[in-house]
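ingest -> validate -> predict -> emit
validate: passed (alphabet ok, no gaps, 175 aa)
predict: started
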Amino acid sequence: MNKIWTFCFAVIFVLITIPLSAADEDNYLQDYLLSYPKTIYSAVTAPGSWQKDDWLKASAVVITGGCLYFLDDNLRNYYQLNRNEFTDGIFTGAKYFGEVKIIFPVMAVTALGGYLTKNEKIIDTSLLCWKSSLLSLGVTQAIKLSTQRQKPYKEEGKEFWQENGISFSRNSFPS
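emit:
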């Protein structure tokens, strides 16, 4: 169901974006769409020009992730033992802010608002949000598909690739 919503919102956004760019004399939409592969290329080649500080930051992220992986069972048990209505409510409410079915329409409405008010900065901002969201969604889904980690409530442990084959239901990491 989530994929259907994503597709519908993508179509709506493109249908809104085309009139936005049609008013410009230059080919804004074409430049915008071509910026996707350029952005991906920049992200993939960026480590080649990293300085010592950049490598230290990346190392810190990897080490932190590894430590959290090894503490996974302990952290899960701690949080499950200390759950209450208030924290459940916070997490339930907060999860909607990152859901595609909420974020994509907000960006589309923002772009439309920028178009109606003829505010190029709002249009550019919404298109940048759209691009970063699509690219991060693609990376996240690729990692989830490649790691095949079960969701914690299935209580199958913290391991990756527990069963043979690829399943779209094993999509817990990263969340």
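The CA atoms of residues 68 and 75 lie 8 Å apart.
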